[in-house]
């Protein structure tokens, strides 16, 4: 028996047979020897031990010590909509994609400036219309096939040619004229106009030999392991059980080097409270999207570390402005009064974002402005006092009166057709924010003559109803990238969905003035001039208010510091860990190694221990027999 002291062993003497066959539960003859002494004694057994190994019923059986997989378990309180990277839109889904497939280039962990991925270098022509990317040499897919420029060309061409494949990332390629692979290591992208986001194409590069066999991007099979299981990122999708788990395994051939642990699990929880309890109990190792109360309660929890950071996400209230598809046909069943910009502005004036930040977010957030959060200061739009929507119910009432919406006998306003201003408010039942903020909105809008019915449903039902236009008001939000092109592109006429139910558009916004500003910023390569155009585009969106930004959450995260360390923040030292614009947070994590016993001469290597029955090592020597039990590692206990 091992005493727990790495320098000595407690051994069982002459009653080893009774101990071996379970007649005695412990030894009466016990003595302690040093480890070095034990080794000398084993060496002295010589031929006796060798002969014993040949005895039939008493012959020990060699057992290879297998280490349990080291697993980082992450709680998800948001559902997965798709693993297919061409159609995935949920933050949880795109996060999984960032681990599974490398990008051409990606934002660095240090400061989010572009760094190499599939491409090791890139160069623009003098007129900025042709970009040449040199593909990294020696990269392979997880099935052993080489990663080439042909894979990248296929990925972009698929998005350019198939509207269904363009749902998630179509905005990046709208300006592309032609994409070709000159050879295995040379990718050439030609654009119609200069494009400022060419080193910030947030598009997972997929293997052509797998995805070229996919006929329909809406086929549920595109979320299956046979399709999504072949990747090039730090982790590979190994198992997917909807609303239960996404299991990823470390990519041993990943070009930056394999992760320091074996598997990364994303485990679905119905709500954040259940996930917090799981963290406390050691059932998961990481959780994000914490409420203020949950975050504060975990600050002094033993074995738990918390992280607060400025976030890259914004929260918004969608106001269905008259949903249409790309052909201009009306879709959904939004209330027609919301097509009136005066109604949408009145709603904005009836809402107090300061209360939402202070009461619902517990002060862990920032007051709203434009679509780009303050963390990206160069592109953030801050409304001036003369145009900012302030909490002013009196002004909201006056605007609704001016627009001709009169109050009925019960205080609820009606439109010119006599239809009541009664709106459905859709939100995620799993989300604390939607549960609490909806009560405020119901009360505030009642005060200005608008009746609101709460409709809190599952994540996927929220996605289905909002992407198909079957909503009036809805809580939503998006993660933004260091380059603003993606989030601005989601608001253009070109982003309107090819069919009802696709996720290409955000708020069904289509405005000629906004589009002109968007395309001007996209082609402007002077950073200062581009930043000004980005702010002007946001100002137009703010004026037309197809959605109202409600605030910017601080990122509130917690993890088991007694199990994992080394989580990388983006930006370095001050940013978030989960849901980054990259994979650095979990890729850099390392298991906390066991300290008891050390790793040196205190244990036998795998395959050396010889066991009798349940794992005892019996050695016969002059003067007695010893029984040694294998030391348990921290992995066994987990």
What is the overall pLDDT average? 85
Structural class: alpha+beta
Number of domains: 2
CATH class of the largest domain: Alpha Beta
Radius of gyration over C-alpha positions, nearest whole angstrom:
30 Å
- What multimeric state do the chains show? single chain
Biggest sheet: strands, sense, closure?
Answer: 8 strands, mixed
Low-confidence stretches: 1-64, 594-638
CATH architecture of the largest domain: 3-Layer(aba) Sandwich
Domain Solute-binding protein family: 114-488
Protein name: ABC-type dipeptide transport system, periplasmic component
Subcellular location: Cell envelope
Pfam families: SBP_bac_5
What would your notes on this structure say?
Pfam families: SBP_bac_5. By secondary structure, the protein is of the alpha+beta class. The protein folds into 2 domains: 266 residues, D-Maltodextrin-Binding Protein, domain 2 (3-Layer(aba) Sandwich); 244 residues, Dipeptide-binding Protein, domain 3 (Roll). 26% of the residues lie in helices and 23% in strands. It has 19 helices and 28 strands. A hairpin with a 5-residue loop joins β7 and β8. It is globular and about 75 Å long.
């Amino acid at each position: 028996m091992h005493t727990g002291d790495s320098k000595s062993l407690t051994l069982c003497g002459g009653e080893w047979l009774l101990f071996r066959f379970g007649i005695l539960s412990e030894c009466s003859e016990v003595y302690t020897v040093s480890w070095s002494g034990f080794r000398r004694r084993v060496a002295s057994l010589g031929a006796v031990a060798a002969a014993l190994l040949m005895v039939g019923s008493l012959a020990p059986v060699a057992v290879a010590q297998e280490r349990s997989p080291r697993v980082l378990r992450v709680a998800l309180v948001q559902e997965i909509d798709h693993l297919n990277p061409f159609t995935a839109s949920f933050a949880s889904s795109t996060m999984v994609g960032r681990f599974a497939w490398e990008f051409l280039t990606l934002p660095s962990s240090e400061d989010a400036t572009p760094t190499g991925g599939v491409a090791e270098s890139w160069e623009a022509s003098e007129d900025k219309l042709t970009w040449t990317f040199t593909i990294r040499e020696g990269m392979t897919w997880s099935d052993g096939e080489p990663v080439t420029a042909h894979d990248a060309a296929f990925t972009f061409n698929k998005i350019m040619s198939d509207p269904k494949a363009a749902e998630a990332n179509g905005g990046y390629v709208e300006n592309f004229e032609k994409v070709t692979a000159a050879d295995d290591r040379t990718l050439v992208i030609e654009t119609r106009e200069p494009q400022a986001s060419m080193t910030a194409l947030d598009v997972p590069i997929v293997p052509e030999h797998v995805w070229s066999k996919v006929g329909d991007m809406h086929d549920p099979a595109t979320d299956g392991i046979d399709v999504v299981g072949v990747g090039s990122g730090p982790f590979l999708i190994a198992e997917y059980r909807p609303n239960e788990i996404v299991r990823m395994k470390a990519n041993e051939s990943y070009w930056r080097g394999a992760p320091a642990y074996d598997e990364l699990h994303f485990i679905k929880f119905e709500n954040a409270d259940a996930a917090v309890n799981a963290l406390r109990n050691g059932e998961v190792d990481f959780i994000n999207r914490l409420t203020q109360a949950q975050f504060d309660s975990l600050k002094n929890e033993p074995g738990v570390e918390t992280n607060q950071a400025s976030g890259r996400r914004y929260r918004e209230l969608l106001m269905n402005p008259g949903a249409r598809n790309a052909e201009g046909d009306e879709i959904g069943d939004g209330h027609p009064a919301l097509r009136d910009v005066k109604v949408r502005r009145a709603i904005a004036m009836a809402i107090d974002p300061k209360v939402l930040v202070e009461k619902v977010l517990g002060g862990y957030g920032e007051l709203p402005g434009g679509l780009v959060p303050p963390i990206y200061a160069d592109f953030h739009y801050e409304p001036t006092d003369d145009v900012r929507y302030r909490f002013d119910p009196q002004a909201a009432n006056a605007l609704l009166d001016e627009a001709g919406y009169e109050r009925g006998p019960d205080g609820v306003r009606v439109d010119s057709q006599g239809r009541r201003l009664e709106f459905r408010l859709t939100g995620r039942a799993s989300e604390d924010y939607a549960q609490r903020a909806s009560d405020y909105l119901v009360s505030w809008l009642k005060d200005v003559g608008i009746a609101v019915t709460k409709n809190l449903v599952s994540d996927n039902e929220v996605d289905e109803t909002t992407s198909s236009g079957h909503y009036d008001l809805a809580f939503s939000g998006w993660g933004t990238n260091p380059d603003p092109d993606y989030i601005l592109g989601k608001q253009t006429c070109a982003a309107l969905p090819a069919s009802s139910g696709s996720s290409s558009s955000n708020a069904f916004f289509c405005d000629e003035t906004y589009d002109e500003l968007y395309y001007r910023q996209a082609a402007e390569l002077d950073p200062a001039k581009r930043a000004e155009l980005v702010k002007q585009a946001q100002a137009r969106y703010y004026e037309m208010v197809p959605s109202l930004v409600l605030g910017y959450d601080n990122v509130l995260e917690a993890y088991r510091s007694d199990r994992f360390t080394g989580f990388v923040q983006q930006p370095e030292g001050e940013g978030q860990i989960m849901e980054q614009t990259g994979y650095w947070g979990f890729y850099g994590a390392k298991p906390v190694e066991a300290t008891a016993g050390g790793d040196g001469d205190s244990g036998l290597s795998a395959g050396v221990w010889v066991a009798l029955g349940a794992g005892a090592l019996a050695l016969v020597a002059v003067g007695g027999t010893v029984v040694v039990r294998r030391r348990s590692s921290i992995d066994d206990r987990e």
